[in-house]
Amino acid sequence: xxxxxxxxxxxxxxxxxxxxxxxxxxxxxxxxxxxxxxxxxxxxxxxxxxxxxxxxxxxxxxxxxxxxxx
Length: 70
Prior knowledge:
Elements: H1 2-9, H2 11-24, H3 29-69
């Protein structure tokens, strides 16, 4: 993990440089980059919510079957 952290830290200066050069050109790259960050942030939570809903439904169905068999 420590060995890979250098590659991860290198991304921040790269984004800063890209945004600085794009801002000088009058481009709207910043909003596109922000949208990409929000997309990457929302994806794991969406996947976790889907699995949570599936787990909850299956647990509820199993509970109903167990009560019906008594």
